[in-house]
Amino acid sequence: MQFADRLNNVETSAIRELFKLLGKPGIISFAGGFPDSAMFDVQGIREASSRALTEEPGAALQYGATEGYNPLREQLVAFMSDKGVKGLDATGLIVTTGSQQALDLIAKTLLNPNDVALVEGPTFLATIQCFRLYGPQVVGVPIDAHGVQVDKLEEMMVQHKPKLVYLIPTFGNPSGATLSLERRLRVLELAVKYQTVVVEDDPYGDLYFGDAPPPSLLALSDQVPGSREWLVYCGSLSKVLSPGLRVGWMIAPPELLARATMCKQFSDAHTSTFAQATAAHYLKAGRMPATLAHVRSVYAERAIAMGEALKRELGDALTFTQPQGGLFFWANLTGAGGKLKDGAELAKRAIEQGVAFVPGAPFFANDPDPSAIRLSFATADVVKIQEGIARLGLAALS
Asked: How far apart are CA 378 and CA 238, in angstroms?
């Protein structure tokens, strides 16, 4: 069978391949990027779905507009307003089947073969794969603990003249890094200066542990004249409410939004109206603040436990920045004390010890760092975190 040439540009996710090895009984996994299902507000979602079926069964179970179910769009406008986004109305966003579909629509509408897309190095693996499917060159821009290095970003914008720049400014996946306020404003200035689309992916921004992070690029766009017309924002309820609802949204300039809507018509007609109606009733009921407070508290405790365990069990054989939000630790193996320095090799040995994580190299569009690893603290409780990191320490011994 002869397949499309575009498939030559992508390969199966290294994370998905790793999951095939997780069938060993008793294994502790830090590999996935899933939220903890034990913290889903099942009662709240049950009540919301019941209201959807009671108050508007015809609308909830029928075909819907490609742009999205309007009551949900209105709720999302209010949700974004609470996060400092001004001047948005329901026509300024479309509902997508998770934020992953938003990324695919962006790639479909903007990227041609031989274009350049700049991404963070490292960045969300699925974004690299999604973009490459459409044929552009995907190039990584260096980051540090404060997010993308804006001086390097400008150099690479001048060098490559990219069609778009993709960033996860707040608690990035996999890096956990948060772009500083100063750098956020500079990114918006660069978008205007070089008339380049900046895509802000924000699935983790509400998962902060202490002080709130800086406002989103979208919320800050009023401070940089002209930047809103070059900015695309991707949001999601997956990490804060339920991935199974598959509810995301995209905010973009009207011309881009219209073309993305047309492409969405071709792919799925519309996101599930029942899921949208459920999400709309959930947001309208006002349960989200309490849900977020609970999730933040639990994840903060687990992040602290993992940081302490990593220091105790691996010591100077591992370097990392303690995350202040999100779901991930991003760390680098140093090889100190005779321990392993290669993330892929450690991942194999860790499975043998009954613990799993993801090696960091696949998260780089180019120039991968073999010493990098990603660990998620989201789905393991404190006891399992301590035991799992102890196993990881044993695996790291050469």
From this structure: 13
At a CB cut-off of 8 Å and minimum separation 6, what does 113 contact?
A: 134, 135, 136
Q: Are 396 and 346 in contact (CB under 8 A)?
A: yes
**CB-based contact 4:120 (threshold 8 Å):** no
Reported in sequence order, the residue ranges of the chain that DSSP labels E, i.e. its strands, are 28-29, 93-97, 116-121, 137-144, 147-148, 164-167, 197-201, 231-236, 247-251, 318-320, 328-333, 355-356, 358-359, 372-376
Q: Read off the pTM.
A: 0.96
CA 235 remoteness from chain centre = 9
pLDDT digits (tens, 9 = 90+) for 149-186: 999 999 999 999 999 999 999 999 999 999 999 999 99
Tell me how far apart the alpha carbons of residues 329 and 318 are, in angstroms, rounded to a whole number: 11
Residue in 10, 93, 75 with CA at minimum distance from that of residue 260: 93
Q: Is the per-residue pLDDT at 204 higher than 60?
A: yes
Per-residue pLDDT band for 33 (boundaries 50, 70, 90) equals confident
**Measured distance CA(251)–CA(235) in Å, rounded:** 8
* H-state helical runs in 223-272: 254-267
**Calpha distance 201→179 (Å, rounded):** 12
Residue 1 to residue 358: CA distance in whole angstroms: 33
Give the whole-angstrom CA distance, residue 375 versus residue 258: 38
Exposed e or buried b for every residue in 27-64, given b needs 16+ CB within 10 A? bbbbbbbebbeebbbeebbebbbebbeeebeebbeeeb
Rounded CA gap, 42 and 112, in Å? 42
